[in-house]
Amino acid sequence: MPEHTEDRRRLDAEKNLRRLVIAESDLFQAYRFADLLLEYEDGDASNEQDRAAKDLATALDIALVVAYCRPFLNSQGGQHANTALKIRKHLRRTFSDRESKLHDSIVEQRSKEFAHSDADSYSPSISKTPFGLMPIMRDPFPYVDFERARVMKNMIAKIMRSIGDENKRLSSEIPMGTTIHT
């Protein structure tokens, strides 16, 4: 095989490995948020202390969704869009149909509600009353779906196993002592 082809393969392996290591870090963070969130499952919003716990659970749910989605979305100004696309396809290949549907809904929720204020899903209704215009907003602390958090935690574990396998494969294509630069 010509030397330039070997160099190209090594550079591709380095790019993919770099992206996978970043994805693994993001997913580890999401997994930890899922663990922390599930600790709040037995709360009761009828007393003040548990209302504060509900607010923390909502914050953890948002953090879980945002961290989970990072490996599946292109970053602004990302240099390696093709690499990111390949990684996204690779990460999702172990999902069942149910998990794929959940994944799509999570990415949509992240984009429309949690990371951005999408006008179609976030805008208030405005009601004209004798007291003036009254905005009717969505609940800023929506119900936390703990079952979804459990399923996401399992999905994350699957993805992380897949990443570990792919990291081993890619590492074998990179010479010992190589430092991968960003």
Can you describe this structure?
The chain has one domain. 65% of the residues lie in helices and 5% in strands. It is built from six helices and two strands, in the order αααααββα. The protein has 182 residues and is mainly alpha-helical. It is elongated, with a radius of gyration of 21 Å.
What's the number of structural domains?
Answer: 1
Structural class: mainly alpha
Strand order of the largest sheet: 1-2
If you compute it from the alpha carbons, what radius of gyration comes out, rounded to the nearest whole angstrom? 21 Å
Write down the overall mean pLDDT: 80
Strand-and-helix sequence, N→C? HHHHHEEH
Choose one word for the global shape: elongated
Strand content: 5-15%
Q: Which stretches are low in confidence, meaning pLDDT under 50 for 5 or more residues running? A: none
Largest sheet: 2 strands, antiparallel
| CA distance, first residue to last residue | 27 Å
Number of strands: 2
Instruction: Kindly state the percentage of residues in helix.
Output: 55-70%
